[in-house]
Amino acid sequence: MDQCKVDVSTGADIQCWFLVKFYPEDVSEELIQEITQHLFYLQVKQDIIAMDIYCQPEASVLLASYAVQAQVSLLQSKLSLISWLKIIRTH
């Protein structure tokens, strides 16, 4: 097997991609580590946005609401909801 060697000491940016090969039926049971669940979420989100996988409009709205709820709960301890909404409006 060939090995790929990269000199990372040069300060070059390296990107690694987590790609989903199989979609589990129950993510909470089959993906145990939080980082794996997060990477899975990011991949599915990107696939839906890029229209690589089909998602019904109603399901898309529901998934988007879950994503906003997750972001709000993470930021709530650091920012008030009003501050967070001001940040969203500027983007």
How many helices? 4
**Content of β-strand:** under 5%
Low-confidence runs: none
What's the CATH class label of the domain at 31-90? Mainly Alpha
Account of the 3D structure:
This protein is mostly helical. The protein has a domain of 60 residues: Acyl-CoA Binding Protein (Up-down Bundle), CATH 1.20.80. It contains four helices and no strands. The longest helix has 19 residues. The chain is extended and about 50 Å long.
Layout of secondary structure:
Blueprint: H1 27-30, H2 34-49, H3 57-75, H4 81-90
Brief descriptors of the model:
Acyl-CoA Binding Protein; 91 residues; mainly alpha; 54% helix; 4 helices; extended
Give a concise summary.
The protein has helices at about 25-30, 35-50, 55-75, 80-90. The protein has about 90 residues and is mainly α.
